[in-house]
Amino acid sequence: TAAISIKQLKKTYNNGFTALKGIDLEVEKGDFFALLGPNGAGKSTTIGVISSLVKKTEGSVSIFGHDIDKEGPLAKKKLGVVPQEFNFSQFEKVFDIVLNQAGYYGIPKAEARSIAEHHLKQLGLWDKKDTQARFLSGGMKRRLMIARALVHKPELLILDEPTAGVDIELRRSMWSFLREINDQGTTIILTTHYLEEAESLCRNVAIIDQGTIVENTSIKALLKQL
Ligand code: ADP
Ligand code: ADP
């Protein structure tokens, strides 16, 4: 089965603007996939629909065979999302933010603590575990979002522009973290407008422009065309 299967996905916002014009996309289990495209192409809208934050107008989305409409809870269990905007409480402490997320998924406390500790250590945030989120740098907040998205051991991790505004050194260390997560079997999809990021990380890529998928191929084949 595919990690995700998107069929004829359309989104028209309430103001009448059609951001997605009928997207078909399939990403295989184990893949590291980039959704590449300029600002305004529809990348965040696509992720919004997948994570049920944005109501779709038409079409279907399945995660490991679970339709997000018909089997929402099963689909959600398999999915971890790192949105672009920081959406945690700035006054909560780092460790608590990750643990509370585990609570939503009903993960036993001891297990949640050990998973959270593992990822916070890998992401260089363990010494900040008792720090309120508002005292973290932008890059640290970004990494906190990643630790939080992984706490229920999702099989599919989707990240919206994970390294936007992050300096090159931190970007490289985030890349190697993501490679490791993918090597351990987690399917990863990220959106980016940096070709370099897709080139460094991904096996397959789709290019989205004005709400339409205009290319869907391996990163190798794409680079040959350029
Ligand atoms: P939905 O169709 O998913 O219900 P809405 O059309 O109601 O979404 O818009 C959701 C929110 O996004 C609104 O608060 C709206 O003001 C805001 N919004 C409107 N236009 C844009 C835009 N171009 N980019 C980002 N957000 C926007
Ligand atoms: P990307 O993530 O590729 O930059 P988005 O999915 O954020 O693109 O946006 C796609 C298009 O939809 C843009 O033209 C954006 O202005 C518009 N848009 C996004 N959110 C809303 C909204 N809530 N209401 C109306 N238009 C929106």
Automatic annotation (TrEMBL):
List GO molecular-function terms, semicolon-separated.
ATP binding
Q: Which UniProt keywords apply?
A: ATP-binding, Nucleotide-binding, Transport
User: Which N-terminal residues, if any, form the signal peptide?
Assistant: none
Query: Which superkingdom?
Result: Bacteria
List, for all copies, the residue spans of the domain called ABC transporter. 4-226
Decide whether keyword Transport is in the record.
Answer: yes
Supply the name of the protein: ABC transporter ATP-binding protein
> What high-level taxonomic lineage is stated for the organism?
Bacteria, Pseudomonadati, Pseudomonadota, Gammaproteobacteria, Cellvibrionales
Q: Which residues of the full protein are shown?
A: 2 to 227 of 313
